[in-house]
Amino acid sequence: MLTELLLLNGPNLGILGRREPDIYGTETLADIEQMVSDEVAGHGWKVVARQHDCEGEMIRTVQDHYDAVGAIVNPGALMIAGWGLRDALANYPRPWIEVHLSNVWAREQFRHQSILGSLASGVIFGLGAIGYRLAARALLPRAES
Ligand code: DQA
C-alpha cells in the first residue's frame, strides 16, 4: 500500500538494547520503530516493521512489499555477503535507504564493504538510532515524487 513504509532489520538486530550497547546503543528495536513512526506519521505514512534473522525471510519480506512507499533497510551482516538479498533489492521498485547503527569503517576490516549500498538511494553509517530517523526524513521527498 502506498502509505506504508517498510522498516526492515536483519540478523541480530532484534536484540538491540542488549546487544553490545557500547557499539549499537541502548535503544531497542521497538524504540527505533516508534521513532520512525513518529517521523512519518504527519505525512500519513504507517510503518510496517519486520526483523528477520534469516536471509530467506528478508528476501520474502522485500518481495511482499513492492507496494510500500519505500524502505529503510539495516541488513546487519548480510551487507557483507547477502547475495540473495542483493538480488531481491535489485528488483525492488521503490526507493530505499541502507542504515547501519555503527560506523563500520572504524571496526573490523571484514565489515568494510556493503554489497548492497550501490543499489540504495543513500546509505547512513555510524549515527546510531537517529540514523533511522534521518533515513525516514530523506525518504519522504524521494518516495512522494
Ligand atoms: C550493523 C553493522 C554490521 O556490521 C553488523 O553485522 C550488524 C549491525 C549496524 O547496524 O551497525 O549486525 O548493521
Average pLDDT for all residues: 96
Architecture (CATH level 2) name: 3-Layer(aba) Sandwich
- Main sheet specs: 5 strands, parallel
DSSP summary, beta strand count: 5
Task: Report the C-alpha radius of gyration, rounded.
Answer: 14 Å
Straight-line distance between termini: 16 Å
The low-confidence parts are none
Structural class: alpha/beta
Domain module count:
1
Helix content: 25-40%
The CATH topology annotation reads as: Rossmann fold
Shape call = globular
Strand order of the largest sheet: 2-1-3-4-5
CATH homology superfamily? Dehydroquinase, class II
- The proportion of residues in beta strands is 15-25%
EC number: 4.2.1.10
Function: Catalyzes a trans-dehydration via an enolate intermediate.
Active site: 24, 100
Pfam families: DHquinase_II
